[in-house]
């Protein structure tokens, strides 16, 4: 009896997979490529990286996305070399930060985001962003 139950199970499983495979024969409509509209900022935290930051910025400029829809910001965190000048020469925004207590990329990104949101609040005047709880 167990053998027959096993055969029935195999037959039902075969029918199930055959029915599922029939759905694969229908043509799926492909979505059209849409024109990008979203604007965003790319933040790079750097500390004394004048030798490599130029290549990083060049690579970010090669993104397959409209150049006018994104900005590259480099947070020059406690840099004592020529990183900020290289960034400016490459056409990105150099934000210099000097804080000997809170060092590191995490603090640099936090500082950048605070500045960015402060700028958004001041320029866009969005009431829901300005509310404090």
Overview of this structure, please?
The protein contains five helices and three strands; from the N terminus they run H-E-H-E-H-E-H-H. With 133 residues, the protein is α/β, with parallel strands linked by helices. The radius of gyration is 27 Å and the shape is elongated. The protein has helices at 2-23, 53-61, 83-89, 105-124, 127-130; strands spanning 40-46, 70-77, 93-97. Strands 1-2-3 form a three-stranded parallel beta sheet, with helices on both faces.
Give me a quick take on this structure.
47% of the residues lie in helices and 15% in strands. With 133 residues, it is α/β, with parallel strands linked by helices.
Label this structure with key terms.
alpha/beta, 3-stranded parallel β-sheet, 5 helices, about 45% helix, disordered C terminus
Order of helices and strands: HEHEHEHH
Which parts are unreliable, with pLDDT below 50 for 5 consecutive residues or more?
Answer: 126-133
- The overall pLDDT average reads 87
- Beta-strand percentage range: 15-25%
Tally of alpha and pi helices: 5
Q: Order of strands across the widest beta sheet? A: 1-2-3
Percent of residues in helices: 40-55%
| Class per helix and strand makeup | alpha/beta
User: What's the main sheet like?
Assistant: 3 strands, parallel
**Cα-atom Rg, whole angstroms?**
27 Å
The coarse overall form would be elongated
Distance between the termini: 70 Å
**Total DSSP E strands:** 3
